[in-house]
Design a protein that fits this description.
- It is a single chain.
- The chain is elongated and about 135 Å long.
- The chain is built from 3 helices and no strands.
- Helices cover 73% and strands 0% of the residues.
- By secondary structure, it is an all-alpha fold.
- It has helices spanning 21-34, 44-115, 123-134.
Amino acid sequence: MRGQDVTNLKGGEFPALRYSDEETERLLAEAYAAIPPRAGKRGTRNLKRQKRRWFIKRQYDKKKKYERMAEHERRMGKRHEISLAMHQIRENAGDVKVKDQAYQQEVLKRWAKVMGYADSKSDSGSNEQNETMTS
């Protein structure tokens, strides 16, 4: 058996039926005549499916739009709070500056006194000395 092809290539059990062209046409016409005509429009399920799909998409887009708007409102709220805080700081900046300058003068006077530059008899003279030291 080695090297030999053992495949059996015979035909089926029944011989193939052979019809003439006229007989083929008659059988096809009979088969097509037996198919009932379709009623209603085509693609109804597809149209319903697409309608549902687009409805869901519009609902999703609507939800995302409200989420974006809410995010924008939150962001602008934070920005407004920062703006109000900065405005308040700028309003109080003059007072803070005056207090800071007074504190710095006190520190300078104490430093001058400790270092021996301060004149206990005249404060105006010590201010002139302090100004020359700082410049």
